[in-house]
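Worked example 3 (structure in, sequence out).
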């Protein structure tokens, strides 16, 4: 009986974590560049009820008798599926079509990666710097902050699909100025560590970042100016998942109630 109490308790804990993941998805349904997270489970250890492999008559059994001890959360993985492209009035709004990530430099000096292309130009010591809404500099293909000197009118800057910044010449035709927004890919994006604020950090599991500008082994991504990548959360799917999680939680709670009632009946036998 006690085994069933703890087994059902692990199910309730696992489903609570599942519901927490679903709630996080729903809360970020309008977050730019957010990727849906999926909770995965695995069974715990099994306990042998009968280790004999033969019956009382000496006949070999086709299977042993084992009982499971519950469930736990194995991982919470992100689904890096392309989100919808949403039009934006900002000239510094950029969406990525493909598997690439923007690179930004954090306040601690480390490089982080994001799919959120809601950038802006901010004042820097020697010009105007392309940065995130938090003021972190966006990096180019060389890993350097993108800074334009005061000779450029930032409202006239356009960005080609390959990420190169362009400025109109005397004939008002956009010409590259020698700066390209960096795009990076990872062999295992699910290995990236989530840092909050739509930022990811590379880990040993994700592998080293692959610079699209220098690699021919990956399919190139495209940057689309005037658009932002919306969240890929499907609200209907999350609502269905929430109902399933709630029902599973209720079933495990009923198993605890049933075990408690059976223990109570066993205690009453000596009366």
């Amino acid at each position: 009986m006690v085994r069933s109490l703890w087994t059902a308790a692990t199910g309730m804990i696992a489903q609570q974590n599942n519901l927490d993941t679903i709630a996080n998805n729903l809360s970020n349904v309008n977050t730019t560049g957010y990727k849906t997270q999926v909770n995965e489970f695995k069974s715990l250890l099994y306990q042998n009820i009968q280790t004999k492999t033969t019956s009382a008559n000496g006949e070999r059994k086709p299977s042993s008798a084992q009982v499971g001890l519950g469930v736990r959360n194995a991982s919470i993985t992100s689904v890096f599926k392309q989100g919808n492209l949403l039009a934006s009035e900002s000239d510094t709004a950029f969406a990525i079509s493909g598997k690439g990530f923007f690179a930004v430099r954090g306040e601690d000096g480390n490089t982080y990666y994001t799919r959120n292309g809601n950038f802006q130009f901010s004042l820097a010591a020697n010009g105007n710097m392309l940065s995130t809404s938090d003021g972190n500099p966006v990096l180019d293909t060389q890993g350097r902050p993108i800074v334009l000197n005061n000779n450029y009118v930032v409202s006239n800057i356009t960005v080609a699909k390959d990420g190169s910044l362009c400025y109109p010449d005397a004939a008002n035709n956009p010409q590259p100025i020698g700066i390209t927004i960096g795009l990076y890919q990872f062999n295992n994006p699910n290995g990236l560590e989530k840092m909050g604020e739509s930022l990811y950090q590379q880990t040993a599991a994700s592998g080293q970042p692959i610079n699209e500008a220098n690699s021919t082994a990956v399919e190139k991504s495209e940057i689309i100016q005037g658009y932002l990548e919306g969240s890929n959360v499907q609200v209907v799917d999350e609502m269905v998942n929430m109902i399933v999680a709630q029902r599973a939680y209720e079933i495990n709670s009923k198993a605890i109630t049933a075990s408690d009632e059976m223990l109570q009946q066993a205690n009453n036998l000596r009366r």
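Notes: The mean pLDDT is 90. Residues 63 and 253 are 30 Å apart (CA to CA).
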